[in-house]
Amino acid sequence: MTSRLRCGLLAASLLLGAAAAQAQDRFIVMASTTSTEQSGLFGHLLPIFKQATGIDVRVVAVGTGQALDSARRGDADVVLVHDTAAEEKFVHEGFAKRRLPVMYNGFVLIGPAADPMQTRGNNVSAALGKLAKSGPGGIFISRGDKSGTHAAELRFWKAAGVDLAAGKPAGYRECGCGMGPALNMASSLNAYVLADRGTWLSFKNRGELRVLVEGDRSLFNPYGVMVVDAARHPHVKQALAQQFADWITSGAGQSAIASYKIGGEQLFFPSAN
Amino acid sequence: MNTVTESLWLALRLIVEADARLMGVVWLSLRVSLTACAFGALLGLALGAWLAVARFPGHRALVWAVNTLLALPSVVVGLVVYLMLSRSGPLGSLGILFTPAAMVVAQSILVVPLIAALTRRLVLDGLAEGGDQLRSLGAGPLMTAGLMLVHLRLGVVTVLLTAFGRAVAEVGAVMVVGGNIDGITRVMTTAIALETSKGDLPLALALGVVLLMVVGVINLAVGALPGRGGVLRELPT
Amino acid sequence: MSGISGISGMNDRTPLITLQQSAVHFGAVQALHGVSLTLHRGERLALVGANGSGKTTLLRLLHGLVEGSGRQEHAAEGKKPVLAMLFQRPFMLDLSVRPNVLLSLWLRKVPRAERAQRCASALARVGLQPLAERAARTLSGGQQQRLALARAWALQPDVLLLDEPTASLDPGAKREVETLIEDLVQEGVTLVFSTHNLGQAKRLATRVIYLEAGRLVVDLPVLPFFNGPLPTEAALFLKGELPWA
């Protein structure tokens, strides 16, 4: 049965020219996050990389948790996510040799322009503390999807002294979804939501939402790149993936990152050493 | 209402301008789903016809299984296929994850139960009317089922159109096994999901309208095929 | 229990199919009980009886379409008898007239070279040659039944089984089809047919079997059958079925 299955699948590949695509070997699969992709950064960055090296980068954009999981399975050659703790664990588990810092942007607290809970300011934990006490009127959308943004959100609740495990605030809504859908939900419910500035700047369905809290040092959102170790998954295109990691942390890559703007505003800030 | 009218105009503009990236996405959707339906038809028609006439212990269990699989959520199919095709999975060495081939596999699995269940019903109903006569003429059980498929070919076409509809409209399976990679595995439904995610609702709806229009054109083409007695006049002689 | 029987009066006594105390069950229901009969070459056997008496089941059993005990075919010169059956409502595939006839030839593995010719002569025999290219399902009831006869005829059958062949036809078509059947049996085909039409039985049959509740009650040559005397149930049945034609 398996050999017939293989024949069938190979036939499918040929039919769709996947064989032709595979023959063109110079591509790598990068697991990254939906927020990064939706910010439009890759559309700007990857063509420059391709020009420089001739390597195609195929981005599979999912939540941070799923991205790292894909890489653990060997389904990606390189990972670019924004959850330092999870990334370090990934390295510690032996799936990558090291984590390289690439860039950072900031989280922002988004909410209704009228801001009934008076969260406006530059202290995100204080803001969340107010939301926790506000009862059912103050709706907060949580991504609840093990993403980098979700991980950050959980840190802020903790800093505000709110124990989510013990009891969620009355207005807490966990959608288990990506940044875009979470923003859509916040837009239609006139709710509060933690977002990364990149996704927010490229988000089109704002309704009455505005940035309410920014500039807090704890809102710092760092991105790291990791090449999957060929010792763990011999088939990964380590050489090509390393070229990507080297490029994105080099002067050329870093200035490409800095040059990406929406409406004149820079989304990501280079941070490679 | 504004979003809806806005998207209808946008849909028209997209079609008229024939934007290259959109055309690529549409073309990939059609290739993936049509190929999946072709494989699905081969397996599903055979399975459905066989289930209509086969009698063996466990036959009823198999029919029950096929009927239950009609409710397979597309994302579940995607997950199962993903786990099979993942590098860490049993068929990882094929290396087709995140390529259109994986999407074809997933959608084929999705449509086979649908085609099989509907075909079985079609053949059973046909055999109720003419099964005796065909057997009297000398046809064995599988032959009667096969002749019924020829006899009811218009019904078969409807079954295949239904399967195509299910395939081209699903997003869960192709998203998981394809990865929605720009230019490689982005199809209409995953593009719609992406634009929705980005909050560009008019564009997402417009793409939805384009999808429906493409399927509409296909249905027109199918409807224009030569009618009764025309599609298959001659039997093997 | 073989009931009342007598000499059929035919010269050719070659047995074709024998049923020996045959029984047929459909699940818990028993459709035929202990039926014994021998079908001889050249006979024209009419099956009569009320609805549900087992006529159709007996026909199907003789043909071999249902599972039943005690059935035996007799091979002549190493060849088993060729059987063909017509049903009350003719079933045609959604194809033209000619492919429908070719189908039966193809299924019976008639050599390719012969098929076209046998198909053409069968269609000519029943007068449907001009309609050969028409969609079979667009033919009238009578024409479809004639087509069914052509389809069976093309096989050069030893036995023709007919299940109430004219019951669903209007009087004109009835006449048409009956005439055709009478024509065909002149060529010596063995006939088994069920009918509610006792006039038809009188015209066509050489032997009549009366069934009641799955049992063979009377088995007589045609003249003794219709002239009596008959057991009470059979006699009542005949009376109930009058008028003739």
Describe what you observe in this structure.
The complex is a heterotrimer of chains A (273), B (237) and C (245). By secondary structure, chain A is an alpha/beta fold. Chain A has two domains: 17-104 and 221-270, D-Maltodextrin-Binding Protein, domain 2 (3-Layer(aba) Sandwich), CATH 3.40.190; 106-219, Periplasmic binding protein-like II (D-Maltodextrin-Binding Protein, domain 2), CATH 3.40.190.10. Chain A has twelve helices and twelve strands. Chain A has helices at 2-15, 18-23, 34-38, 41-53, 64-73, 84-92, 124-133, 148-159, 179-189, 197-201, 238-248, 251-258; strands spanning 27-33, 56-62, 78-81, 100-112, 140-142, 172-174, 192-196, 209-213, 220-227, 261-262, 265-266, 269-270. In chain A, the strands form two sheets. In chain A, strands 1, 2, 3, 4, 5, 6, 7, 8, 9 and 12 form a ten-stranded mixed β-sheet that branches. In chain A, helix 8 (148-159) links the parallel strand 5 and strand 6 (172-174). The longest helix of chain A is centred in the first third of the chain and has 14 residues, at 2-15. Chain B has 237 residues and is an all-alpha fold. Chain B has helices spanning 2-17, 20-53, 59-69, 74-85, 100-136, 141-151, 153-169, 172-178, 188-197, 201-223. In chain B, helix 2 (20-53) packs across helix 7, helix 5 (100-136) packs across helix 8 (172-178) and helix 6 packs across helix 7. The N and C termini of chain B lie far apart (60 Å). With 245 residues, chain C is an alpha/beta fold. Chain C has a domain at 1-79 and 190-245: P-loop containing nucleotide triphosphate hydrolases (Rossmann fold), CATH 3.40.50. In chain C, the strands form two sheets. Chain C has a seven-stranded mixed β-sheet, sandwiched between helices. In chain C, strands 3-2-5 form a three-stranded antiparallel β-sheet, with helices on one face. Chain C is globular, with a radius of gyration of 18 Å. Chains in contact: A-B, B-C. At the A-B interface, helix 1, helix 2, strand 2, helix 5 and helix 9 of A face helix 2, helix 5 and helix 9 of B.
